[in-house]
Amino acid sequence: MSRIPPAVARRLDRLARHAHRFHRFAHHPLCEAYAGEVIRLGRRTRLCRGCTLATLGALAGTLLGLLSPRLPPEPLLLGPALLTGWAALALAPRGGRRSSKLLTRAGPCALAAFLVVAGLRAAAAAEPGDWSGAGAAAVTGALVALGLLAWRRRGPNRSPCVTCPQAPPGPRCDGLRPLARRERAFSRLAAHWIVRG
Question: N or C: which end of the chain has fewer CB within 10 A?
Answer without folding.
Answer: N
